[in-house]
Design goal:
It is built from four helices and three strands. The protein is mainly alpha-helical. A three-stranded mixed beta sheet has the order 1-2-3. α2 runs antiparallel to α3 and α3 runs antiparallel to α4.
C-alpha cells in the first residue's frame, strides 16, 4: 500500500515537473529579444559576499532559528541536569541559575531586536554572551548617529556596557 502511494506521488511529481518545463521553454522563446550593448564587469572582490534583500532576510531568519535551536538544546540539557537525582543540590542550583540567565538573555535579545526594528534597523540580530553583545544590522555602513542610537537601545534593553557592544553590518547589493 505504501509502495503504491510512493509510486503515485513520484508519477504525479514527474508529470507536474515535465509540464512546467515545457511551458517555461515556450514562454521563454516567445519573450526573447536580441539586445546589444556594453557588458559591465562586476567589481566585487572575489570572496566578498554581497547579499540581496531577500538573501539578508533569509540569513537573518536562519540565524534567529539557529539561535532558538541552540537555546532550546541548552535549556533541554539544563532541565536534564536539574531533574537528575544523582547530582548534588549545588550542581542543580548552578544549572537552575544558568537556565535563568539563558532565558533572561533570550528575552533581552528579542526586546532589543524589536526596538531596533521599530527605529528602522530592520533585520537586526542581537546576541548576548558573557563577554560582549553582538549586534548585526542590515546596512552597508552605520553613521555616528545611528551607532549612538543602536548603542542606546542595546544598553537599555540588555543592560550591557557600551564598550561591550560590537556592531557588524550585513552588506547588501541594494
Amino acid at each position: 500500500m505504501i509502495a503504491l502511494l510512493a509510486v503515485l506521488i513520484a508519477a504525479a511529481g514527474y508529470v507536474n515537473y515535465s509540464g512546467f518545463e515545457i511551458e517555461t521553454k515556450e514562454t521563454s522563446s516567445k519573450n526573447a529579444e536580441n539586445v546589444s550593448g556594453k557588458v559591465e564587469d562586476d567589481d566585487t572582490p572575489v570572496g566578498e559576499a554581497v547579499l540581496t534583500s531577500a538573501d539578508v532576510s533569509n540569513y537573518v531568519a536562519q540565524a534567529k532559528l539557529n539561535r532558538e535551536q541552540t537555546h532550546g538544546k541548552a535549556k533541554e540539557t539544563l532541565q536534564e541536569i536539574i531533574s537528575n537525582e544523582k547530582l548534588t543540590d549545588n550542581e542543580k542550583a548552578a544549572a537552575v541559575e544558568k537556565l535563568a540567565v539563558l532565558s533572561e538573555n533570550l528575552e533581552k535579545e528579542v526586546a532589543a531586536e524589536e526596538l531596533l526594528g521599530a527605529k528602522g534597523f530592520l533585520n537586526s540580530i542581537v546576541s548576548i554572551d558573557e563577554d560582549n553583545t553582538d549586534v548585526m544590522i542590515q546596512q552597508k555602513e552605520v553613521s555616528k548617529i545611528e551607532k549612538a542610537q543602536i548603542e542606546d537601545i542595546v544598553t537599555r534593553k540588555t543592560g550591557c556596557k557600551v564598550e561591550d557592544i560590537v556592531i557588524t553590518t550585513i552588506k547588501t547589493d541594494d
